[in-house]
Amino acid sequence: MNNFGAKVDQFTEIVFHQGGINKIVEGLQNTLLIAILGLIIGIIIGTLIATVRVVPKYKLLPRILNGFCSFYVGLFRGTPMVVQLLVFYYVLLPLLEMRMTGVQVSIMVFGLNSGAYISEIMRSGIQSVDVGQMEAGRAVGLSFATTMRMIVIPQAVKNILPTLGNEFIALIKETSVVSFVGASDLYVAFNYIGTNSYEFMVPYLVMAVIYIILVILISTGIRLMERSLRKSDRRN
Amino acid sequence: MIDVIDLKKDFQGNHVLNGIDLHIDKGDIVVITGPSGSGKSTFLRCLNCMEDPSGGQIIFNGVDIADMKVDINIHRRHMGMVFQHFNLFNNKTVLQNISLAPIHVRKTDKKEKTSKKKIIEEENARAMKLLERIGLADKANVYPATLSGGQKQRVAIVRALAMNPDVILFDEPTSALDPEMVGEVLDLMKELAQDGMTMVIVTHEMGFAKEVANRVLFIDEGKIKEDEPPEEFFGNPKNPRLKEFLSKVLV
Ligand SMILES: Nc1ncnc2c1ncn2[C@@H]1O[C@H](COP(=O)(O)OP(=O)(O)O)[C@@H](O)[C@H]1O
Ligand SMILES: [Mg+2]
Question: What is the fold of A2-235?
Answer without folding.
Answer: MetI-like fold (1.10.3720)
